[in-house]
Structures are given as structure tokens and as C-alpha cells.
Design a protein that fits this description.
By secondary structure, the chain is of the alpha/beta class. It folds into three domains: 237 residues, ANL, N-terminal domain (Rossmann fold); 179 residues, Rossmann fold, CATH 3.40.50.980; 101 residues, GMP Synthetase, Chain A, domain 3 (2-Layer Sandwich). The protein is built from 17 helices and 27 strands. The strands form six sheets. The protein has a nine-stranded mixed sheet, with helices on both faces. Strands 4-3-5-6-7 form a five-stranded parallel sheet. Strands 17, 18, 20, 21 and 22 form a five-stranded antiparallel sheet that branches. The chain starts with 26 loop residues before the first helix and ends with a helix. The mean pLDDT is 93.
Length: 564
């Protein structure tokens, strides 16, 4: 078959179907099939506790009946304000059962940010930790007028009673006080499960109905709620299962990505749809716990953000793990440096490290490196099945650029969102016409080689204009990372007071501990001199700022919005 418009297909692994048949069903049907086929298989492991698919189904049905009882009709929003715990999966599956829309609410949000999201999505029910209830929700109790019910839970609610009491006594388990909120009903999560039967409410859900309102990371602007349909999530799930040659009902997966981030939720949904088992990691910064769980359950797939892989590379226990059963380690959400890629591969095994790319608005996967085929370092891989990618000019977005030239990634496929929630102007800007069809304009700058492999250059919003010259921050950051003093860095543009409309290149650097006692002025000069030797003059940072701790988003991306 001729794939002239999709040159990347020639580099697919032999089993991958370029035009993969996608069942036009709501996501709940995929979950039902897993429960029917594998009722006794563990759905998840959590801090020594295991729940089977049959047990998960019973709890999800009970939660769904609660939603129906309190008047949540199909299409109404259930907010889930939790880390990766059993309650998150139960609430998510329960919302599916009741025909409701789920919206992940990051526990790391400030009270003000939390209020903005709850107001925007119009959540009727919110599931939250008792600690978040006390320290955040009570501060904004008047800011979510549609919120009628608050379901409070403790992170250890699924643990045995002795373990719960001991953990709280030793202050190893965070907790908070839960009380009445005027005009709202407050109930405990475990009471919800105790008081409702495990029958299944009859919700009529269609493939085109909204499944998730998932909020963007907001690293370059205000978060927006991407409305993703059941059809979007089923397509992305089927793509992932086929691409990674996943084995139904027989594998264990481990990820530090939080479920309130689309990458973590995508993996969670795919694992459930395959009848496989996932290890729940409530605190991804606890690398010792990740290593312990990895050694105990021997997962086939490890999936993390690059900054977490860097933390694991610094963890002695990680280097001693047996990776013989691990088929691959996926990395996404931000670029994995070439140095980290090679260091990780030396530990886990050659050919096992894969970079993937996507965005909240595409549910999230758009590209990935082949599982067994050629992987190109620094590449985000190839467009997935049923997906078309083009690189278009940065000025007008109306013409494709030649192979190897920089341009904006635009994408088309069944995983692309319906719209931004309550943002018609933002939707019209992101979903635009190109050659007579609707495409997603990603805002990411990249190149594509002759084989169809894509290489991210920068975010369009992170591109710096220096007197008419374009400086791509990722390129300069990659050079800085080669300097022995740099542990973490970010390049941003600041206004040039002498040249209106032009910017200065500023480097924000978190130095390695061994260099922190060195004279700052001397170190700054060394870094600038190094840059002058390795890059064009207009790319060299004119301002260097050292920082003790780089601000990060919830999933470990450098927060350039905070730096600006």
C-alpha cells in the first residue's frame, strides 16, 4: 500500500496496523469486558493492598448508585481531587457507570486555582482527601455554587485498620479534619460504599458523549478544560494497546504520572481496558517506594516524566533492580535529554527506552517511538495509527515546511478533543482549518526527517525573538545541560529595554551541589564563555540567574510561567 502522505508508516513495528479499526463504543464497554474476562485478576496494588477487577466493579457500582441517588444526571461533572489511590479509580469507574463526566483536580493546586477549576467545570460532586478538605476546600467553600456534595476520604482508607491507625499515629499518613459546610452535604467515601448496593445504574452513554474535562498544565498560560469524548479515549486506548503489543490479562504496569495529568490517566484507562494490573504510586517523589514496588511486582512497563527518571537515576536502589521482565520504559510530558536517555538505557537495557508525545487535548498520545524498531535519540517518534501529522510554517500556519525545517506541529485523528470547555475563542484558535479540514494546532515547534520521525524544538510560546532572530529555548537548554555545573536549567525571554519588540535571552540555572560554593560571578562567566564557544552569538544568554530549586509543575515540568 502506498503511504506517501504518511512516510512514518514504513518505520512501524511489523504488527502495528496503520489504519487500526476502532470500536465505536463508550469506554465503559471496554471496562466491562475486562471485568467479565478477568474478575479474579488484580486491578491494582496499593501499599500492600490488592483489589481484583470484581472488587473494583462492586465499589464502582456502589459509587455510581450514590451519584444517581444525589441527583447527578448523565453529563454532570464529578471532580476527583486525589493522588493515585484506589478511591480515584473507583470514583472514575463509578462516574463512567453513572454516565457522568469526570474531571481531575490536582491536589497541588492553590485554593484559588482549585476554585477556578471547580467553577469552570461546574462540578456537582467532589471527591477529596480529608487533608485537602481542611487546608484548601474550606477556604473556597463559597466559590463553587454548583457543588452540592463533598466526599471526603483518607489516603489510607483502603489499608487494613491496624496499618491505618499505626500510620496516622506515626504521622506517616497525612490527614485532616472534616466538618460541615453550609449548603453542601459532606459524606465519607467509605460510608458511600457501605450505604449503597453494588447494582448497576442504567446510564445511556453514547461514544460521542463527553467522558472527561481534563485541564491543561498551564505552564505557558491559564489552564483550559479539554472536553474529551468516550470515542477519543477509546481510540487512544486502542492505539496504545496495538502500538506496545500489550498482552491482555497478564501484565503489570507502574507509573509515577498522577491521574489528574492526562498521561497518567491515559495509562490507567488503557490498563483497565486490557484487564491488566497497575501499581498505584501516591507520591512519585518517594523513589525508594517506587523501587520497592518494582522489585515486588516486577512490572512489564515503567512510565514516568523525565524529571522522575532523573531522580531514579540518582537512587542507588534503582540501579540494583532486575529489569529482565521490563519490556520498556516510557517517557513523556517533556523532553528526555540525550545524556539521561543513555544513562537510563545502560540500567534498564538497550532498546527499552521510548519517548512519547502528546497533549491533554489529544487524550493524550499523538506520537511514539517504535517498541522494537529504530529509536532515534531526542525524537518523539512517529505519528500513531489513524493519526496524521504535518509541520506547517510558523508565521501563517497555511503551508507545510520542507523536510528538516522548523514549523508548528498540527495533528488530526480520532483522539483529538471535542472542544475547550466554555472557551469558544480558544477552541477556534486551536482547532483550525488546514487544506479544507479541521486540524489541532499544537503550539509545539518541531522538525520531521525523511523517515517521518519528529524532533521537538520548542513550544511556540517559548520561542524568543532576539532582534528578528528566533531562539528556540530547548536548543539552548540542551547546550547548557552539557556544562558540568548545570543540574537543571530553563531559558526564557525578557523584554529588551533598549530595543522595543526584541527580547534578551535569560538562563535560569539550578547548579549541582558540588558547584554551589563556587563564586557566582565566576561560575556565570564560565557558563557564558562556554555558550559563546558552542552557539551563535544571539543565542548566548545575556542574563544568568542561579536558583536553589527550579519551580516545577505537578508532573515535573519546569514551570516557565512561574519563572516569567
Amino acid at each position: 500500500m502506498n503511504y506517501d502522505d504518511r512516510p512514518w508508516v514504513e518505520s512501524y513495528d511489523h504488527w502495528v496496523e496503520p489504519d487500526l479499526p476502532i470500536p465505536d463504543v463508550p469506554y465503559g464497554q471496554l471496562l466491562d469486558e475486562s471485568i467479565r474476562q478477568f474478575p479474579d485478576r488484580p486491578a491494582f496494588h496499593f501499599m500492600g493492598v490488592t483489589r481484583t477487577y470484581a472488587g473494583l466493579d462492586r465499589d464502582a457500582r456502589r459509587f455510581a448508585n450514590f451519584l444517581v441517588e444525589v441527583g447527578c444526571t448523565p453529563g454532570e461533572v464529578v471532580g476527583i481531587n486525589l493522588p493515585n489511590t484506589p478511591q480515584y479509580i473507583v470514583a472514575l469507574a463509578g462516574a463512567v457507570r453513572a454516565g457522568c463526566v469526570a474531571s481531575g483536580v490536582s491536589p497541588l493546586l492553590s485554593p484559588k486555582e482549585m476554585a477556578c477549576q471547580l467553577e469552570d467545570c461546574g462540578a456537582r460532586v467532589l471527591v477529596t482527601l480529608d487533608a485537602l478538605f481542611e487546608h484548601k476546600l474550606l477556604k473556597i467553600q463559597d466559590r463553587a455554587p454548583r457543588l452540592s456534595h463533598i466526599v471526603a476520604t483518607n489516603i489510607a482508607d483502603y489499608l487494613p485498620r491496624t496499618k491505618r491507625l499505626l500510620g496516622k499515629a506515626l504521622k506517616k499518613i497525612p490527614s485532616g479534619k472534616v466538618g460541615a459546610v453550609p449548603g453542601k452535604t459532606v459524606i465519607s467515601f467509605m460510608d458511600v460504599l457501605r450505604r449503597h448496593p453494588p447494582t448497576c445504574p442504567q446510564a445511556s452513554t453514547k461514544p460521542g458523549d463527553t467522558f472527561l474535562i481534563q485541564y491543561t498544565g498551564g505552564t505557558t498560560g491559564l489552564p483550559k478544560g479539554a472536553e474529551l469524548s468516550h470515542r477519543n479515549l477509546v481510540a487512544n486506548t486502542c492505539n496504545a494497546v496495538n502500538w506496545f503489543d500489550a498482552r491482555r490479562g497478564s501484565e503489570v504496569y507502574c507509573s509515577g504520572f498522577p491521574f489528574f495529568h492526562m498521561a497518567g490517566l491515559c495509562l490507567c484507562l488503557a490498563v483497565l481496558a486490557m484487564g491488566n494490573t497497575q501499581i498505584l504510586i501516591p507520591d512519585p517523589r518517594n523513589t525508594a517506594h517506587i523501587c520497592k514496588e518494582f522489585a515486588r511486582y516486577r512490572p512489564a512497563f515503567l512510565f514516568n516524566v523525565p524529571s522522575l527518571y532523573q531522580m531514579l537515576l540518582d537512587e542507588p536502589r534503582f540501579k540494583r533492580l532486575d529489569f529482565s521482565q521490563c519490556r520498556f520504559c516510557g517517557s513523556a510530558a517533556s523532553p528526555l535529554t540525550a545524556e539521561s536517555f543513555r544513562a537510563l538505557e545502560r540500567i534498564v537495557g538497550p532498546g527499552k527506552v521510548l519517548e512519547l508525545y502528546g497533549m491533554t487535548e489529544t487524550g493524550p498520545l499523538l506520537t511514539a517511538n517504535p517498541h522494537q524498531g529504530q529509536k532515534k535519540i531526542a525524537s518523539i517518534g512517529l505519528a500513531l495509527q489513524n493519526t496524521r501529522i504535518k509541520i506547517v510554517d510558523l508565521e501563517t500556519g497555511t503551508q507545510e515546511v520542507p523536510i528538516g525545517e522548523k514549523g508548528e506541529i498540527i495533528a488530526q485523528g480520532p483522539q483529538v478533543m471535542k472542544r475547550y470547555h466554555n472557551r469558544p475563542e480558544e477552541t477556534a484558535h486551536a482547532l483550525r482549518e488546514f487544506q479544507g479540514q479541521r486540524w489541532m494546532f499544537t503550539g509545539d515547534v518541531a522538525t520531521m526527517d525523511q523517515d517521518g520521525y519528529i524532533f521537538i524544538v520548542d513550544r511556540a510560546k517559548d520561542m524568543i525573538n532576539v532582534g528578528g532572530f528566533k531562539v528556540f529555548s530547548k536548543e539552548t537548554e540542551e547546550t547548557l545541560y552539557e556544562h558540568p555545573a548545570v543540574e537543571c536549567c530553563a531559558i526564557i525571554g525578557v523584554p529588551n529595554p533598549k530595543r522595543p519588540g526584541s527580547q534578551l535571552v535569560k538562563a535560569v540555572i539550578q547548579p549541582k551541589s558540588s558547584f554551589r560554593e563556587q563564586d557566582a560571578k565566576q561560575l556565570e562567566q564560565e557558563i557564558v564563555d562556554y555558550c559563546r564557544e558552542t552557539m551563535a552569538p544571539y543565542k548566548v544568554p545575556k542574563i544568568v540567574q542561579f536558583i536553589d530549586q527550579m519551580p516545577m509543575t505537578a508532573v515535573g515540568k519546569v514551570d516557565k510561567k512561574a519563572l516569567r
